## 1
Amino acid sequence: MAQRTVLVVLFDGVQSLDVTGPLEVFAGAEEAAPGAYRIRTASLDGRPVRTSGGLGLVPDGPLAEAPAPHTLLVPGGEGTRRPDARLIEWIRGHGPRAARLVSVCTGAFLLAGAGLLDGRRATTHWAHCDELARDHPAVEVDADPIYVRDGPVATSAGVTAGIDLALALVEEDLGRDIALAVARHLVVFLRRPGNQAQFSAQLAAQTAGRAPLRDVQQWITEHPDADLSVEALAARARLSPRHFARAFRAETGITPGRYVDRVRLEHARRLLEDTADGIEEISRASGYGTPEAMRRAFIRAFGTGPAEYRRRFRPAPVT
């Protein structure tokens, strides 16, 4: 088995979890499969850096002396907003030499600044996707997934999504069993699918400003198996269906039907991941009515049916 060097770039203002999350995944994989990874960290001058949260990190050395990486990982954080020009130049020169180039959160801005995302599909933290698209029009920014793979380049969304991406890379390198062992140790799911949305239905939509509409949003969340037609929801808000649909979209940014779809999908996904309930029971509890209706929704969202989703993304019990 060939050893893969993972090099993590450090800089002042880096987000600590962007560094330590993926690093712990690769370190866990190295423990499970000795010799699989050689993990190194480096800063521009080899000096310690201070994270955005105030934590001090001591690198293994300067970037100029770092070993040639198989996987070059660029984390995000406040330090990506006004990066040292020397850091961008180093990434521009060394990034293409890595077999895999990975960014976490706003680390995508450093890759984009080095021109390494031009013509590629990429993502970053949802709050910065518009900015990335505006500042780097040559990048195809996808705001929805938790991570995106485009050839040898992989970009992930905010903080914990870096763990999901690292687990996916370990599974690619060493197989599902090793990745599962690491996930169990870290008490996380083996991995969420890359095309899973970055945030929940409640966060994806804005909170309505008017109390009746906020109450309806809460009702939908708490009763996904209820009659959630526009007519029924409008009656709860004491509005006409037409007025309700228009006001709901104006205040939340999405239609009532789309919001209901997201809530039901999220509810079903959580039941598949967290319970042993049967598919038919989950389909009723989530408001789909039939397993076939839920299967169609899962295939549209995740490219796989509920049973396969459960098999792939629900962690086995720790023994």
Note: The chain has two domains: 4-186, 201-313.
## 2
Amino acid sequence: MTDANAPTDDTLRRWLLQQLTDADAQALDARLMHDDALAERLREAETDLIDDAARGALGADDAEAFRRYRLVDPQTRERLVAARAFARLREEEGGQEVVRRPHRRRLAWLAAAAIAAAAIVLPMRWTSPPATLPTYVLLAQTARGAEAALTLPAPQTAVRLQVEVADATRRYALAIETNGRRTPLARDLVPREADGYAYVEARVEAALLGQGRRRVVLIAASGEVERDWTVVVGAAGE
């Protein structure tokens, strides 16, 4: 039986963006405490909101509220990075949705769980086209100092690295170090910005990554190392 008093999807989104009145927000808070079905709907509404933010589909007011109230949560920021990667792959496939909407929601949650568990976005592979590259996202909070190295499968051809940067006005280079020897991966990278985040992106050939324990280094134009990540390519990553 349908609950005629159940909040609409729009109401749930407005709650997420703190656009409800205090009275309406408090009433919804109380209901969420004991309504598991509603809590699940809220999680789905949040996934859709993050997906819209990743695609640049939010209006100006909603985008500002999203930045102000949702991006303060590190997990939301990580999910946004994953959603951007999915959105980019969809764009490369001509803007076609390659999965049905409920399945896309499950994929977004799996991507978020993968980030939380392994501190890196797992390869985001679609069934077509074959030329789509697996994408790996390196976030600032998973830089050197994390408890464990990041792991990724040995690529067959190439991968796309997306790396969060601190300053969108600077240019960057990426390099990989093995046993103290540094090999350039990409130079003169111009940061992109979306929803308050800045990142650089580069296609990296499999031969440059190699296999084994590596150190991915983000280098500012001045030559200083801004941050680095320890990764294990292949073996433990497969």
Note: The two ends are 47 Å apart (CA to CA).
## 3
Amino acid sequence: MITKEQVEIFVTQAHRYGEARLMLCSSGNLSWRVGDKMLVSGTGSWLPVLPPEKVAVCDIISGQVENGVRPSMESVFHLGIFRNRPDVNVVLHFQSEYTTVVACMKNKPLDFNVTLEVPYHVGEVAVLPYFRPGSPELAEAVIEAMQEHDAVLLSNHGQVVCGRDFDEVLERALFFEMACRIIVQSRMDYTVLSQKEVEDLRNSLGLARIP
């Protein structure tokens, strides 16, 4: 049973992401695993001002809506990520300014590791071609990419990040945006950390894997 308090937590976090300027109007969607249920923003809702009555509750296994609120049209890939990634509890689809600029570039970066925060907090970014929003093809591609990545760039569309909790997802999204701002503002004249430098970072922090 999803409680009123859990819905309030979800709404507060949605507003927090909106205050961080990660989306405009209805451009994003958010989900949260609570046991075997998923809270997800309703279709057409605006995360920056999301009201409790626009939060859908779905069963993760069946995908069935349990409270009569129509979920975001991207809820299929949110469900798929939760089914495949037991370590993930929050998924955010967003369209921050500079990351979306990069998503629309003809020649996209092959490496986003412009600062140490990127390999540490964001990890390797999967870059997907354009698929129609809400389409089965988009959902399938995102679900597949998220099996091995925590951040995905959707060409001519936006971004998806996932994580263990709301803070990790916010951190991941903001550092992804920071990297793209550096890339854009440098006019594509930037350097990245070498593979050796990334490995040295990993070893110095005692991490088995850069997230």
Note: Residues 4-201 form a domain with the L-fuculose-1-phosphate Aldolase fold (CATH 3.40.225.10).
## 4
Amino acid sequence: MHNTASLLLLVFLSITFIQSGYDKIFYWKENVSWLKEHFAKTQLKNQVPLALAHVLVLELVSGILCIAGSIELYLTNGKLYGYYGALFSCITLLMLLFGQRLAKDYDGARTIVIYFVPAVIAVYWLN
């Protein structure tokens, strides 16, 4: 297999976003409550449930595309689904980064960058 590193990155992104989506679905009230407090001093203070729903959809789309991309890459060496999974992962992470910066949570923003770097590498390798 010539695409081992790309496959590992797609699995990494799949785990990241599917687990995060699972957490949002099954602990919705707790997430909304925590995020309302987190964004209390921002323009998003009244939009938390809607913003969380948008992020949830993007995370699930990213994770599902990365899973499909992993399978496609492993079975046929195809890169289409993986590329779009990595691209959606980057878009999702940029939205999360924007929220953290808006909330002035610079440590949280820094943590997102740790996930963003491998996502960008995956986009590059799968393009």
Note: The chain is about 85% helix and 0% strand.
